[in-house]
Amino acid sequence: MFGSSDRRSSTRHAVQGVESSLGAVTDVSEQGLCVFVKGAVPVQVGESLTLEISGADESVQLNAEVVRIQPCGLWRYEVGLAYQSVFKEDRARLSRMVAASRVHGVSPKAYQKAK
């Protein structure tokens, strides 16, 4: 998914059943997340936005910046977002969401290919 251009310094966790206001969340890390978008992408690289994320009976709003938009098929895109600021309570909610939604034993890259 990110290939050799992966600039993350923290572990990515593949997740299932986590949705955002942009689309399905495919992986989450300490620094950001990746969202799978079908259809036209309503954001641009460099844009800041407030993202609503929900899953596993938790929801959180996070400020993020679009750092990457990568085509992955006809009208299908991966949108990489970096958190701009995360309050302690929101980080705790996000951690619980990831723990409950994590796809174990599979890397985010392999999980995305299987979808």
Q: Descriptors for this entry?
A:
single chain, 115 residues, alpha+beta, seven-stranded antiparallel beta sheet, 7 strands, disordered N terminus
Verbal overview:
It is a single chain. This protein has helices at residues 88-101, 108-114; strands at 13-14, 19-20, 24-28, 32-38, 48-55, 58-71, 76-85. A hairpin with a 3-residue loop joins strand 3 and strand 4. Helices cover 18% and strands 42% of the residues. It is built from 2 helices and 7 strands. With 115 residues, the protein is of the alpha+beta class.
Topology:
Blueprint: E1 13-14, E2 19-20, E3 24-28, E4 32-38, E5 48-55, E6 58-71, E7 76-85, H1 88-101, H2 108-114
Antiparallel strand pairs: 1-3, 2-5, 3-4, 4-7, 5-6, 6-7
Task: Write a brief structural summary.
The chain is an alpha+beta fold and 115 residues long.
Can you write the helix and strand succession as a string? Answer: EEEEEEEHH
Mean pLDDT: 86
Number of helices: 2
Helix content: 10-25%
Report how far the terminal alpha carbons are from each other: 12 Å
Structural class: alpha+beta
Largest sheet, order of strands side by side?
Answer: 1-3-4-7-6-5-2
Radius of gyration: 13 Å
Name the overall outline: globular
Q: Total strand count, please? A: 7
Low-confidence stretches: 1-5
Q: What kind of sheet is the major sheet?
A: 7 strands, antiparallel
Strand content bin: 35-45%
